[in-house]
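User: I've been trying to design a sequence by hand for this structure and keep getting stuck. Would you show me what you'd pick, starting by listing the structure so we're on the same page?

Assistant: Good idea, let's start from the same input. This is the structure you sent:
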């Protein structure tokens, strides 16, 4: 059992995989499939295609419902298996698996790796053993049916969940990860709703395979309570002669998705970083060419676009397209020291809110925030950007800040002390900011990124000073690395 019932919301399905699945070819006969089930004492067999990915599943219930009527064991498995198969990915959250199995009345569900190949099964009975009635109520609130009204309710329920997790002393970065997962799930369900609507209207399905990606904090898994939309499409390559037809279809989808996400609670991006903008809607080859041009040209616009884009992560569709693009970014930035120097020069303008003698530099420009600190622009952002810079230089594909720090430490780019101080700084700053956002939401105030240091305890202020000092020292090190200036 968990130490606390809220732990289920950050527990991964990885710990609940029950052995290797029974795999058979989709060309197997039903008699052979049933024999495999019996020999392995399994309640299901998974049919795989030639590429190793799941193509169907046959369960004990299928045997009773379908095979008894057919009465012929020579029937190909492909004729009776259930497809498409609902799966859950490694690294996904346990509560999400519980919700999907309950909602679709599944007793078990295959677990797949990043390539879509099966690695195990998760059973509803095992997962439910980790939850009590109160937890199940929370899960049901967070995984309602995929209508726009239901998804608005899911978005609103995030605040209550964040408050519960925070009260249970879950570290803020872990809560951010859960929030991001919920947000990405909402995005996926909005896309599914609109794909179904377009199909029903006679516009057909996607003309080419595609993926949706999320940029910024969503790509890093570091969402706070109310992120705006920062999304893009990656399309499989297609002939230039088909561009007008194919792009028109994806423009239609993009307009529907961004409209509905705004309705659900994800505001339209003021900078127009959305799939409706052709800059963020391209084929995989066009993405490669565009990002290579950004790195090569190093213009102010190119640096700004790269700064927005390079933390992207998969949200929907063909994972291979996003993985291919990540491999490309990792390769071109590792060899581009002049580009990284320019990116450092642009990012170095964002400093922490700490002045002489360890005094806080508070806001004096905005009357509503006088005496407060913008904990995003003067706290997390300088750290996030600096860590990303080293990760790009060292060819590290991970996007989350803490994962990047871990890899940089493992590769001896960061010393033990540097990694320890920076992890502590990130955790403390995000903790203070998330706590403030939850309190503002509950009080009916506008939720933002500001914290008043006078409202902190003496220990919290001391820790914040130490956090800012650690980030300042880190930026001194970056300056030495990327400008050859020695302090």
């Amino acid at each position: 059992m968990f130490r606390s019932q809220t732990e289920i919301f950050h527990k991964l399905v990885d710990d609940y995989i029950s052995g290797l699945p029974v795999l058979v070819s989709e060309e197997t006969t039903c008699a052979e499939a049933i024999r495999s089930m019996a020999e392995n004492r399994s309640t299901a067999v998974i049919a795989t295609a030639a590429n190793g990915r799941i193509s169907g599943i046959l369960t004990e219930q299928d045997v009773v419902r379908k095979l008894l009527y057919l009465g012929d064991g020579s029937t190909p498995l492909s004729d009776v298996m259930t497809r498409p198969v609902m799966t859950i990915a490694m690294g996904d959250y346990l509560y999400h698996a519980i919700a999907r199995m309950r909602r679709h009345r599944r007793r078990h569900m295959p677990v797949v790796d990043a390539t879509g190949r099966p690695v195990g099964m998760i059973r509803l009975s095992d997962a439910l053993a980790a939850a009590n009635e109160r937890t199940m109520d929370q899960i049901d609130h967070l995984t309602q049916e995929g209508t726009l009204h239901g998804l608005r309710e899911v978005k609103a329920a995030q605040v209550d969940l964040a408050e519960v997790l925070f009260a249970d002393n879950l570290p803020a970065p872990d809560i951010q990860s859960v929030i991001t997962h919920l947000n990405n799930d909402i995005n996926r369900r909005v896309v599914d709703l609109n794909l179904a609507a377009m199909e029903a209207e006679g516009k057909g399905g996607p003309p080419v395979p595609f993926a949706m990606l999320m940029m910024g904090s969503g790509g890093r898994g570091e969402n706070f309570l109310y992120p705006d939309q920062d999304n893009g499409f990656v399309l499989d390559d297609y002939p230039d002669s088909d561009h007008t037809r194919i792009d028109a279809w994806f423009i239609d989808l993009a307009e529907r998705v961004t409209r509905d996400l705004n309705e659900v609670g994800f505001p339209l991006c003021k900078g127009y970083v959305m799939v409706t903008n052709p800059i963020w809607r391209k084929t995989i080859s066009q993405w490669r060419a565009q990002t290579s041009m950004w790195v090569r040209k190093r213009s102010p616009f190119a640096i700004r676009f790269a700064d927005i884009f390079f933390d992207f992560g998969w949200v929907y569709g063909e994972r291979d397209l996003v993985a291919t693009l990540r491999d490309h970014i990792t390769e071109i930035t590792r060899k581009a020291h002049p580009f990284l120097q320019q990116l450092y020069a642009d990012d170095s303008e964002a400093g922490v809110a700490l002045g002489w003698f360890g005094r806080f530099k508070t806001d004096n420009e905005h009357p509503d925030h006088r005496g407060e600190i913008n904990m995003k622009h003067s706290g997390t952002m300088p750290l996030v950007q600096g860590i990303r810079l080293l990760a790009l230089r060292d060819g590290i594909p991970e996007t989350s800040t803490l994962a990047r720090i871990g890899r940089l430490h493992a590769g001896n780019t960061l010393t033990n002390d540097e990694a320890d101080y920076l992890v502590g700084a990130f955790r403390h700053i995000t903790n203070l900011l998330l706590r403030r956002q939850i309190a503002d939401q509950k009080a009916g105030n506008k939720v933002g990124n500001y914290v008043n240091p006078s409202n902190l305890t003496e220990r919290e202020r001391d820790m914040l000073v130490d956090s800012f000092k650690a980030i300042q020292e880190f930026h001194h090190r970056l300056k030495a690395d990327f400008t050859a200036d020695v302090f």
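That's my pick for every position. To get oriented when you compare it with your attempt: DSSP finds 18 helices and twelve strands in the chain. The mean pLDDT is 88.
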